[in-house]
Design brief:
The complex is a heterodimer of chains A (589) and B (194). Chain A is of the alpha/beta class and 589 residues long. Chain A folds into 4 domains: 2-220, Thiamin diphosphate (ThDP)-binding fold, Pyr/PP domains (Rossmann fold); 224-325, 3-Layer(aba) Sandwich (Rossmann fold), CATH 3.40.50.920; 355-526, 3-Layer(aba) Sandwich (Rossmann fold); 534-585, Alpha-Beta Plaits, CATH 3.30.70. A 6-stranded mixed β-sheet of chain B has the order 2-3-1-4-5-6, with helices on both faces. Classes of the chains: A alpha/beta (589), B alpha/beta (194).
Chain lengths: 589, 194
């Protein structure tokens, strides 16, 4: 037993070592990424671990391992579960023999996501148990025990922490790290693992029969628990439990939902002992709908009554407001405090020296009137440079581009996609665009790393999750084998070459690919690469604003002139675009 | 009434707010106290505005409600202003004297308050302004500004000085220990006049 101050994801990773887990995979996605990153970085590993190329691939890998009787963890962010939904929906039919825990991290308020979907819906859809922790300690304890629960029920378990669990910190009591010694062995059983209609109909019935037992067990195990203390009751789930705990009076009853499916008999018994019930949870009215089913004539407050929001994340103050608006007592009042209105925003920005900025600059220069579908990665920040017209989900730059190109739209369509995203779900779109004879340009922004989520390696990096060298995948060969005849690779730090490659692509028919390749500036710095910073000659600077519009965070206006700050990475791009030649290398590295 | 001492550490992604919050958390471990916190990770870190919530003796959720923070430690003056509404009446702000103007201000020609205007707007609060950049350079590395700020804040934290120093020693890279301890000490001296 040890007590440490840990990030939620660190505590989750440690719980896997305590369980212990035998097989780990996933695809990076905020706020889930650190779990695999921490486990792959352990000095001694008694388990197999990989970064998979996408979430569907990851989940199928994990499923195969769990069918061999070993314990498997598969991590992703909530939207990754959409990609993995196909295997998920049938994995509940086949079940597992070794414990399988699927971590799908939700992101209320969409801190780093394209939507606010609620993974609990998937658990209900697939009919698998779902754990929804209210604190880091509970997240740790749930994951430690979830593998056993998966084996007990023979079903995958969906573990659904949210951003405020994954990226919160707190004092956590940890157990000892264990070594399992398990080895996988596949026992042939076609009735279980081959889901032809004759088998799957039987499996579906068995899955449905399991549900009642699961519901009861989740109450017995204390994941769902309630305390009757008065005539008003608050029912909360997930992180909202922590917020409610701080302000709920001791005379208000409190039920805590930590796992699904909820036992309706237990829930009804609790609800029926109260005059009014308030349900507090983030995102969907998931618990609330269950409560409404059993409440009869007892008034239920929550989202449907207009007291709580359907979107965004909750907070202590938000929970206080909800309780107050529903007429429930609280033991703390939160002041009204509004942010000052006149502070300029400071959104995240592409780094000084980022290759994406150069690529967007060149694209905008060559395709002034172009349409620019883009994708999910750091380069989505190209929005600030006018280089991003659409993003929807992983891999959708190429597919949306071909859709626009076939729509009758006359302007040039130029899409951008990162190396990791291209390998995740971009290839099929490229194949489809070539097959269906679209006219468009694809720019692969190849910085050789999955940068946004914390620099995880991918097949283009040339090393595995554990640092073992492997042959890097050739993006050029993939594109050519999809049927692309124009595939040009250029270093976007050389703007002239980059512009020329794009000009050539513009003149040609069909699908063209330009691979803009340069290492991520953060990876390069970590690898010890440093360049001489640049400086502005104030005599030559005419304050024309060209370098300012370039949007580099190392360039500022000081009085009448542009200046380059200590943040300069020495990429030279501002010097290449300065019309008066006022920017030159200066100083020491 | 809340039982925790609530601190908001704010700054710009890359300035070391996460290390600062780790130092506070580790110091709580050294003193065997409970602590909860929340941080900004992921893309928002890329040069964006970032906030770390730390609730010393916190037992519940990690988030601090606006209007209830006991202390704000700001690594950038503009960020001190942005998050000042989190402070409770009578709370304290310890801020770096300098500010980095957001790149979007230059690109879009947005108005930005001057250092003087910000200090005026913050004058309702107890304010402690530290030349973190100057002191970090004096300590030997501009990268130690976050440790300078922790040193300055140490007077107002409900944590023992020894716990904080021990925590810094545990968390900074061994090669940089001497510089960081010197940064902490210089910050502490500067903070003593607040």
């Amino acid at each position: 037993m040890e007590r440490r101050y840990l990030l939620g994801n660190e505590a989750i990773a440690h719980a896997c070592l305590e369980s212990p887990v035998d097989f780990i995979c996933g695809y990076p996605g905020t706020p889930s990424s650190e779990v695999v990153d921490i486990l792959r970085g352990q000095p001694e590993r008694h388990y197999y671990i990989e970064w998979s190329v996408n979430e569907k691939v990851a989940l199928e890998n994990a499923l195969g391992a769990a069918w061999c009787g070993i314990r498997a963890l598969c991590t992703m962010k909530h939207v990754g579960l959409n990609v993995a939904a196909d295997p998920l929906m049938t994995s509940s039919y086949t079940g597992v023999t070794g414990g399988l825990v699927i971590m799908s991290a939700d992101d209320p308020f969409a801190h780093s996501s394209q939507n606010e979907q609620d993974s609990r819906m998937y658990a209900k859809f697939a009919k698998v148990p779902c754990f929804d922790p209210c604190s880091i300690q509970e997240a740790h304890d749930m994951v430690r025990d979830a593998f056993g629960f998966s084996e007990e029920t023979g079903l995958p378990v969906l573990f659904r922490p949210t951003t405020r669990i994954c990226h919160s910190k707190g004092d956590v009591t940890l157990g000892d790290v264990q070594v399992s010694g398990r080895t996988g062995q596949f026992n042939r059983d076609p009735r279980q693992y081959v889901v032809i209609p004759a088998h799957t109909r039987v499996l579906h019935k068995k899955l449905n029969e399991k549900q009642a037992t699961i519901k009861k067990r989740l109450v017995e195990l204390g994941y769902n628990k309630a305390e009757v203390r008065g005539r008003d009751a608050v029912i909360a789930s997930g992180i909202a439990v922590s917020y409610v705990s701080e302000i709920i009076p001791s005379t208000t009853s409190f039920a805590k939902i930590g796992a699904y499916p909820i036992d309706e008999t237990w829930l009804k018994e609790f609800v029926s002992r109260h005059e009014r019930v308030l349900v507090i949870e983030e995102l969907s009215p998931f618990v609330e709908e269950e409560v409404l089913q059993v409440a009869g004539t007892i008034p239920v407050f929550g989202k449907k009554s207009g007291n709580a929001p359907y979107e965004g994340e909750l907070s202590p103050a938000a929970v206080g407001r909800i309780m107050k608006s529903a007429g429930f007592a609280t033991n703390m009042d939160f002041p009204v405090a509004d942010p000052p209105q006149d502070v300029p925003p400071r959104p995240p920005i592409l780094c000084a020296g980022c290759m994406h900025r150069a690529a967007f600059y060149a694209i905008k220069k060559v395709f002034r009137e172009g349409i620019f579908p883009s994708d999910i990665g750091c380069y989505t920040l190209g929005l600030q440079l006018g280089g991003v017209d659409t993003t929807i989900c992983m891999g959708a730059s190429i597919t949306v581009a071909s859709g626009i190109a076939h729509s009758g739209e006359k302007r040039d369509v130029v899409c951008t996609i990162g190396d990791s995203t291209f390998l995740h779900t971009g290839i099929q779109g490229l194949m489809n665009a070539v097959y269906n004879n679209a006219t468009m340009t694809v720019v692969i922004l190849d910085n050789r790393i999955t940068a946004m989520t914390g620099h995880q390696p991918n097949p283009s990096t040339g090393i595995t999750a554990c640092g073992v060298p492997v042959p890097p995948v050739s993006l050029e060969s993939i594109c050519r084998s999809c049927g692309v005849s124009f595939v040009e690779t250029v270093d976007p730090y050389n703007l002239t070459l980059m512009v020329n490659a794009l000009k050539e692509a513009k003149e040609r028919p069909g699908v063209k690919v330009v691979i803009a390749r340069h290492p991520c500036v953060i990876s390069a710095r970590r690898a010890g690469i440093s360049r001489r910073p640049y400086e502005v000659d104030s005599e030559k600077c005419t304050a024309c604003g060209t370098c300012i519009r370039f949007g580099c965070p190392a360039i500022e206006m000081a009085g009448e002139n542009a200046v380059i700050t200590s943040g300069c990475s020495g990429c030279s791009l501002c010097a290449q675009i300065c019309p008066t030649g006022a920017i030159t290398p200066g100083g020491r590295k | 009434m809340k039982e925790s001492y609530d601190i908001l550490v704010v700054g710009i992604g890359g300035q070391g707010t996460i290390l600062a919050s780790n130092i506070l958390g580790e110091a709580c471990m050294i003193e065997n106290r409970s602590v909860k916190g929340a941080e900004t990770h992921g893309m928002a870190q890329r040069g964006g505005s970032v906030e770390s919530h730390i609730r010393i003796d916190g037992r519940f959720g990690p988030l601090i409600a606006p209007g209830t923070a006991d202390l704000i430690i700001a690594f950038d003056l503009l960020e001190a202003f942005r998050y000042s509404y989190f402070l409770r009446p009578g709370g304290k702000i310890i801020t770096n004297s300098r500010l980095v103007v957001p790149t979007s201000v230059f690109m879009q020609g947005l108005p930005v308050p001057t250092e003087r205007e910000i200090l005026g707007r913050l004058s309702d609060h107890e304010l402690c302004v530290i030349d973190a950049e100057g002191l970090a350079e004096e300590a030997g590395s501009p990268l130690t500004q976050n440790i300078v700020m922790m040193g300055a804040a140490s007077h107002f934290l409900p944590l023992k000085q020894e716990s904080l120093v021990q925590s810094v020693s545990r968390l900074v890279p061994p090669k940089t220990l001497k510089t960081n301890l010197s940064a902490f000490e210089l910050g502490r001296k500067a903070g003593s006049s607040c």
